[in-house]
Structure formats: C-alpha cells, structure tokens
Amino acid sequence: MAPAERIILSKFELEVMDLLWNLGEASIREVQEAINERKRPAYTTVQTIFARLEEKRAVRRTRKIGNAFLFEPLITRTSVYRRIIDEFLDLFGGSAEPVLSRLAETGKLTLEDLKAAEEKLDGGKGKRR
Question: What's the predicted TM-score (pTM) here?
Fold first, then answer.
C-alpha cells in the first residue's frame, strides 16, 4: 500500500475510492454505474478521475478484460480517513472537543459511538471502574 498520508484526494476522488474499496476490484464502468443515478457523471469524467488516482498512486490497473481495465486500491480507507481527520483536528488546534460538542448538539454522536470510543481508550481491556 502507498503511504496515504501523502496523497490528497478531492471529494469526488474520495467518493470513487470509497466505491472501489467496497468493490475491491472494478472497472471504470462498474464504478460509474455504482454512483447514485441522480448525480452519476459521464463515463469519461470517471475515467479522468481514475487517471488522476493512478497518477497519485492511489489505484493501479490489475488486469484487462476485453477492452476494460480493472483497478484496485493501493491505499486503505483507514489510512486516508486518518489523514483527513488529523488535518481536520489541526484546524481546532488538535482538540477534538469542539468537534465532539458539535456532534453532540446535532445528535450525530450516539451512546454507541461513545462506548466504542471508551473501548478504544481502554485498549480493549473491558470497562474501567
């Protein structure tokens, strides 16, 4: 896997990568057709995004079936999300508190989210008392 911390993805490139991560290996056409029909771009637009992702070394061609190349991700979802979240937190001086406060205000932070975070903080050792 390429070092994702050096790869900057646009919003649309990230959307294409998300589809490719879900599919594992796919052609440009398969990815294009997986995009919500309401906002589905032209095939050539998705083809351009794949060319950019190849240039960035985020994807690679794996094989050819007929006249279509299949692609697979060279970076992981986790590594990309970590970089995005780290950059986002840097905007707040590295503090997660403003983000957590906003998530709580909007109801997007659930009790299950907090429990999962607590488990991460505990290192998976069970509950702290």
Answer: 0.78
